Structure formats: structure tokens, C-alpha cells
Amino acid sequence: MRMSQLFGRTLRDAPSDAQLPSHQLSIRAGLVRQLAQGIYSYLPLGWRVVRKIEAIIREELDAIGGQELLMPLVHPAELWQQTGRYDAPAPGPILLRFRDRWDHPMVLAMTHEEVAADLARTEISSYRQLPLMTYQFQVKFRDEPRSRGGLVRVREFIMKDAYTYSATAEQLDAQYEAIYAAYERIYRRCGLEVIPVQAATGAMGGSASHEFMVRNEQGEDTLTLCPACGYAANAEKAVFAKGQLPPQELRPMEKVATPGATTIEAVARLLGMPVRQTAKAVFLATAAGRVVFCVIRGDLDVSEAKVSALLGGEGLTAATPEQLQRAGLVAGYASPVGIKGVVVIGDDSLLGAPNLVAGANEPGYHLLNVNYPRDYAVEQLADIALARAGDACAACGAPLELARGIEVGHVFKLGAKYTAALGATFLDAEGRPQPIIMGSYGIGLGRLLACIIEQHHDEYGIVWPVNVAPYQVYLASLARPGSEVEQAAEALNERLTAAGFEVLYDDRNERAGVKFNDADLLGIPVRLTVSDRTLSQAAVEFKARWEQERRLVPLGELEETIRGALMETAPTA
Q1: Largest CB tally within 10 Å, which of 94, 137, 537, 573?
Q2: Are 491 and 497 in contact (CB under 8 A)?
Q3: Cross-strand partners of 458
Q4: How many CB atoms lie within 10 A of CB 265?
Q5: Per-residue buried b or exposed e for 313-344, using 16+ beta carbons within 10 Å of the residue's own CB
Q6: CA–CA gap between residue 569 and residue 557 (Å, rounded)
Q7: Half-sphere exposure of residue 202, counting CA atoms within 13 Å on the CB side?
Q8: Is the pLDDT of residue 27 over 50?
């Protein structure tokens, strides 16, 4: 490909709203162009990277029995209504709904579990056909309220989504492990360092899931990591050792005056006790305005992500004073004791935490010796505590660390959630109908591309890993039109292309500095330069993108030298 004919151009400056290096560089290098908020066009250089990522994924999934297909982007709403996701709090408004010309309700696919289960209903009838795996590369649309970071969070994107079909839980476990291992190989071949973490199943449902995270200080996800034993989980799933209060005999409740003590710390100081001897009240609100009353031991914090997961992925915000007033709650003195008409969720730290101090739901008063479940009930009792840096690892007791990250893949054990709802069954060995057991496995290709840039760049531009670089060789001609040098560069371009190399030939009438700056920005692994100086020595100037050294390579040794460089792995920036 000649640079003079390449569709798309490099830019000196990045958009003013681009904060992530991958966002800045993907625009400046001419990989993508924004059409609308969260919607991008891939230009030829960016699309070549996507296709190379796609080829790696295809090879790895084919190797473990995957069969590629293609499912529609537009779905009839009935499928989503049958599984319950059409009207559920999650996905909620992220799922784009519309009506066709016949006034039939439709959706623009944000994922394909419903269609995958519907296909299983028509194509799978016997346990002898199982296990199976299908996958596709397909456009998705999620009407995100806050697209950001270029390709990191968009509304329209290309996803590789795979689906497994099993007859037994054991078959699902084996398929899950095989795809988990394939994902690790995919990321390694793409030059990406990832951290697999335990994750909540959320609105997708199922029994287990893992996310593959790229560590990044500007990432939206919080990772909880134990450097001692390797435990890793996201905020929705992270557990830690909460400790136990000393056992006590349960005492009767007693109301005491606590004027002006509207915080846990103030109450503890006033009553001369540790904050862990109190019951903290945290108030959240759903999008519909429903107040959720969370109760937790006073020395712990509530994880909104865990509460949201318990409520099926429903979005939550801090409850307003007006919402608390309408619910009959007194801010600063609220109590789960005697409260009615409010969803109460308790943390499991309340078990074995005797004689806590809680609000009396009356200004200026608290209750001593409040005990669960003797004195109040909760709709759900679960782990809703937020893991913090320094908390003890539940596995080994070492202090936990927190990090920020970007999700680049997610795998789920779905079970029979979708197949049971859609009537997708098979006949077992005894001839009895059983629901097909499913798994779902996703990788966003654009986000993966962005994360590769995040890990592989320097102050000058992108430093592509060899396997995903748009071209292998950047050939710069420093020649006057019609000169002997230009003829030599043309011949070298033809020779390297014939030898099987992917060459981006910079034949533009530009200064050497412009060409070298663009070469660094584009990040092609090998840069070759043909000039009067190199031609006089029957050589070519050779430079690997990740090295400072430039050297002359005789023309007769060039192919071998290029192949040797392409066997190397560019270091992570």
C-alpha cells in the first residue's frame, strides 16, 4: 500500500476531549474517526488491526471446536420479553427499542443470548449432539449514557460472542475451562497483559463468571487484588475477611438520647464505643425512585455494585433527603427497627454482631442493643460490603490492594436461564426433555484494540505488537521524483511484497522528518529507509519501532533481518 493513496491521514494534534492515550493515538494515527457520540468509523489502517485480532480469535476458537456463524443485528422483541430482559431494570434503557413499519416491537441487539437460545431450540434435539460451541463477529449497539475514552466505551461496537451448549454441568465446566484458556492465548498473541478476576453474573444471570481485565489507572472498574496469594475479583464480587465481634449475651433494646450525633463516628464517640459496635444505615434509590435501605456493621462500607447486582443490575444513586422523607426515614437517625414500606438489605456482617447501636428513627435518639434477626427483618441478607485497600484477604489474610482496570473480555456460565425461558430442550439418554445448558463468552474487538495501544505506546506514538500491526514494514523513500533512489525504493517495495511482507510504502513528497514522525506515530514494527546514502552502500537503513538503534543492512540480507525482527515481541510500554 502506498501512503500517497492511503485513505485516511495522520493528525498532529488529538481532539481536546481525548484523555486516554489510546483515544488520542487512534485518532492521530488515522485508525478511526468519530461519526457521533460513541459511534466510530474504522479507516483502513484501523480495520486491518481489527481483522488481525479477529483472525487470532478465529484460530483459537476453531482449535477448540468452535463453529462460526452470523446472527441478526435486529431482533423481534418477543424473544427478549420471553426471557424477561425486555422490561427488566437491567439492561433498561441501554437496550434500544423501536417499532418497524408494521408497528412490531423490535430491538437493536446489545448481545445475542436470546437468539443463540432460539437457534438451539430449532437445531438441537438430542444429547448425542452435545456439547457444541458457536461464535460470531457481529455489530452490537448499547445506548450508553456516557460513552468515553474513544473505543473503550462506545455505543456501537464489534463483538466476538461465543455460546456453548451442554447436556450437563460437567460438560459446561469443561467448555468454560477450554474457552478460558483460549482467551488467555488470544490476549498473549495480541501482546496484551491481562488479569482474570472473579466477577458477578449481573443481568446476564448464571452461576459463575470471570472478567479479563487490563490494568489501567484511568479504567472504570475497580480490581481487588491479593499480591500474596493471587486472589483477584472485581468490585461486584470481591470478598474479604470482615472479622467477628466478641460474643455477648443479647440485651434488651434501650432508647438513648444522642443529640447532634448524626454520623456513625459521632454516635460512637458520644457513647464511648468502637464504630464496629454500631449498625450503619446507607440509603440508595433506584431509577424509579424506590428507596433501598442498606444495613451494615459500622466499620464497613456498602458496595453499590453489590447491591445493584442483588437487585438484578438495577442502576442506583444516593437517595435524596426528599426521598427519605417520603419513605418516613429520619436522616442521621434512621433505623431498620419497625420500618415499613422500604426495601431493607442487610450485610452478612450483622450475623454474629450482637448488641449494636442503631438509629431510633427519631431525631436526637438511637437504640442500644439492636440485634438481627431478633429486632428487625431484611428482604435479603448477603455480602454487600465494599472491599478496601488494606482489608484482609479472605483466602490468606494478607492486606488487599486496589487497582483500576478496563474489561477486555467476559465469560459466563449461564445455565438454563435462557433456554428454559425459550423452551430449548434436548432429549437425554432416557428420552426425557431437559433444558440445554448454555455458556456465553464475549470480547469487544475495538476495546481490545484500544487496550493494546494503552499497553504499547511511547511519547512518539503506537508501538504495535507484531501479530496485530496493520503492516509489518514501513518503507520510507527519501528521494526526488524520478531519481535513481526512487527507482530503487519502488523496486524494493515490489521485492518485499513479493516475498510475502506487508509493506506500507511511504512514497509521499514529504520531508524526512514528516515521514519519520508518521512512522513512529503509526507504530509499524520495522522501518526501512532508502536514500542516497544507503543506496551508495548497497544497503537500507533498518530500525525496529521499539529500539533506538538504526543500522545499515545490506540489501542481500534484508529479508532475513526483517524476519528475525518480526519474530521478536515488542516490550510493553
Answers
A1: 137
A2: no
A3: 461
A4: 11
A5: bbbbeebeeebbeebebbebbbbbbebeebbb
A6: 21
A7: 24
A8: yes
Q: Per the structure block, which three cell numbers stand in for 435?
A: 433444558
Coil vs helix vs strand at 10: coil
Strand-pairing partners, residue 292, are: 284, 343
pLDDT at 504: 98
Q: Has residue 380 got a pLDDT over 60?
A: yes
Average pLDDT, the chain: 94
DSSP-based three-state secondary structure for 307: helix
Q: What is the pLDDT of residues 435-446, one digit of tens each?
A: 999 999 999 999
Query: For position 480, what pLDDT does the model report?
Result: 83
Write phi, then psi, for 209 (nearest 5 degrees).
-160, 160
C-alpha–C-alpha distance, residues 97 and 84, integer Å:
14
pLDDT above 70 covers a percentage of the chain that reads 98
Judged by phi (left if over 0) then psi (alpha if -120 to 50, else beta), residue 54 lies in alpha
Q: Cell triple for residue 555?
A: 540489501
Handedness of CA 234, 239, 242, 247 (dihedral sign): positive
Count of C-beta atoms within a 10 Å radius of residue 411? 25
pTM for the full model? 0.91
Q: What is residue 68's three-state secondary structure?
A: strand
Nearest one of 149, 138, 15 to 69, comparing CA atoms = 138
pLDDT tens by residue, 470-480? 999 999 999 88
Name, in order, each residue with C-beta under 8 angstroms of 520's C-beta and a sequence gap of 6 or more: 460, 461, 545
Q: Measuring CA to CA, which residue among 459, 479, 431, 461 is closest to residue 524?
A: 461
Q: Is the pLDDT score of 570 beyond 90?
A: no
* Average of per-residue pLDDT across 411-420: 96
Kindly state the helix (H) or strand (E) to which residue 565 belongs, with its residue range: helix 558-566
pLDDT tens digits for 123-158? Answer: 999 999 999 999 999 999 999 988 889 999 999 999
Rounded to whole angstroms, the Cα distance separating 466 from 474 reads: 13
C-alpha cell at 504: 506500507
- Cβ(331)–Cβ(280) under 8 Å? no
